[in-house]
Amino acid sequence: MATLADVLRQHGAAHLVKHTLSTPQAKAWRGIVACRTAALGGQQLACETCGHSHWQYHSCRNRHCPQCGSRAKDAWLQGRLADVLNVPYAHLVFTLPHSLNALYQYHPRWVIDTLFASTAQTLSEFAANARWMGLVVAPRPSAWYCTPGPRTCGCTSMCMR
Hints:
The chain is an alpha+beta fold and 161 residues long. Helices cover 43% and strands 24% of the residues.
């Protein structure tokens, strides 16, 4: 079965003719292609009994690499699952209109702060309204920076009063 690194090695040059990678994308690409190869070095291990030896190459340790990044991701996910309360959750995303992208480009901190404040106020108003069953809202927002504009994205736990 072909790995992502095999696909990038075989078809990557043709892809790069038509597409440009950002600096982080290029770094991940190079890491994935070099992962567990002689390019990153390694150790030659030998059996003391029979003398058989083989090379064990270093990993790229890039979080996007399917060979070595998935273990760290899985461990992180298990840690987050331990933090989850045993209540129903709703995933809410508040997005700015594209017309405000230029404002975000020049004043990102103010835009993010304002977006968080607006999000918190909106959620609090919904929570206080009996029409929405008097939910208790515990927002845990986190900024999600996408190109070109920001979003707030967070899990909100909801409990009946």
